[in-house]
Write a structure and sequence with these properties.
With about 375 residues, this protein is α/β, with parallel strands linked by helices. The protein has 12 helices and 14 strands. It folds into 2 domains: about 1-130 and about 280-385, Isopropylmalate Dehydrogenase, CATH 3.40.718.10; about 150-265, Rossmann fold (3-Layer(aba) Sandwich), CATH 3.40.50. Helix 1 (about 35-55) packs parallel to helix 12, helix 6 (about 185-200) packs across helix 7 (about 220-230) and helix 10 (about 325-335) packs antiparallel against helix 11. The radius of gyration is 20 Å and the shape is globular.
């Protein structure tokens, strides 16, 4: 029976599942648009392989979200998809959107489905780890001595800010057109994200960077005030405040200074894409979106996806990098099932593939072996447990 209770603890406890020898994992797959079906297919192959290796049973149920859902049903998030996601232990997402559905005057857009499913699942924290692999030092445009050793976690708030604020919209006709977006935040929204940030920092290098625009925005001044109130609960963790424009500069100038970055919805969206370039490509960055709902196994039900988009220019060519989606699947095993050994096995297999010189086009360099999506997924599977 599925639980819809909300957990009051910000961090799941892996010890709670130590009595399990094997598990039954129920995952809903939202492959989405563009390269989404290609990269999720490889993540599924890797999940099946690690499940067989450790004795777990994994069932996948597919559903529509985004542009493909609009084409099939006229809705970006059909009711059937909502039901399947609510019944799952975790959700794996590919990507949504593309030029076919990009008309700014359209009443239904693929991105509406993504925002809606986050709301349905009660997801409020998007975790985006940024790790620079030694094997990919040369894939970045930055100097090796700047990016070597970078290992940060960007935490983006998902429920407030300009993406959801009302009023929102446009009015008037040329030459008198206008538009408005509203950026609301509540104390509760800010506090729960910051509390999770401090909890996670305790298991890392004990430093939280709170990013805002407090010199201009009222919401940012509230953000900073609440961030420091929460910080008082964690005297063993350092807190620093950085304005978002300064942070965008420091991410390029001195990225090793960061451990956990916590920020609002829009800022987090932008900064995490910038940080992807430290790792060499958006094709390398996974993410986990977590909330308060607990699945059958006592862990947070989450949505896991690469941070990249649908890349319609390469869709169907079989060259998309699946590693971000595969690493998202590893995050799923850790966060929604407490399977830390299995998650680590996937992450180590990815690192071995990169160390062996295997690359997709987005991270290729002279002297490396170029692979397509399927072959890269197979390379990771072959290195599991080695």
């Amino acid at each position: 029976m599925q639980s819809t209770a909300r957990d009051q603890s910000p961090i799941p406890n892996p010890q709670s599942l130590l009595f399990y020898k094997t598990m039954n994992l129920k995952i809903t797959v939202l492959a989405g648009d563009g390269i989404g079906p290609e990269v999720t297919a490889q993540a599924i192959e890797v999940l099946n392989a690690v499940g067989a290796q450790y004795g777990h049973t994994i069932s996948f149920e597919h559903a529509l979200l985004g542009g493909c859902a609009i084409d099939a049903t006229g809705e970006a998030l059909p009711a059937d998809t909502t039901a399947k996601c609510e019944a799952a232990d975790a959700v794996l997402l590919g990507a949504v959107g593309g030029p076919k559905w990009s008309d700014p005057k359209a009443k239904v857009r693929p991105e509406q489905g993504l925002l809606a499913i986050r709301k349905v699942l009660g997801l409020f924290a998007n975790l985006r780890p940024v790790k620079v692999y030694d094997a990919l030092i040369d894939a970045s445009t930055l100097k090796p001595d700047v990016i070597r050793g970078v290992d940060m976690l960007i935490m983006r708030e998902l429920t407030g800010g300009a993406y959801f604020g009302k009023p929102q919209g446009r009015s008037g006709e040329a030459p008198n057109r206008s538009a408005v977006d509203t950026t609301p935040y509540t104390e509760a929204e800010i506090a729960r994200l910051m509390r999770m940030a401090f909890e996670l920092a305790r298991g890392r290098r004990k430093k939280v960077t709170s990013v805002d625009k407090a010199n201009v925005l009222a919401t940012s001044r509230l953000w900073r005030e609440i961030a420091h109130e929460v910080a008082a609960e964690f005297p063993d963790v350092e807190i620093e405040d950085v304005l978002v424009d300064a942070c965008s500069m420091y991410l390029i100038r001195a990225p090793r200074n960061y451990d956990v970055i916590a920020t609002e919805n829009l800022f987090g969206d932008i900064l995490s894409d910038e940080a992807a370039m430290l790792a060499g490509s958006m094709g390398m960055l996974p993410s986990a979106s977590l909330g308060g709902f607990i699945n059958r196994h006592g862990f947070r039900r989450g949505l896991y996806e690469p941070i990249h988009g649908s890349a319609p220019d390469i869709a169907g060519k079989g060259i998309a990098n699946p590693l971000a989606t595969i690493l998202s699947a590893a995050m799923m095993l850790r966060w929604s099932f407490g399977l830390t050994a299995e998650a680590a096995a996937i992450e180590q297999a990815v690192e071995r593939a990169l160390s062996d010189g295997l690359r997709c086009k987005d991270i290729a360099s002279p002297g490396t072996t170029l692979l397509g999506s399927t072959d890269m997924g197979r390379a990771v599977t072959e290195r599991l447990g080695k």
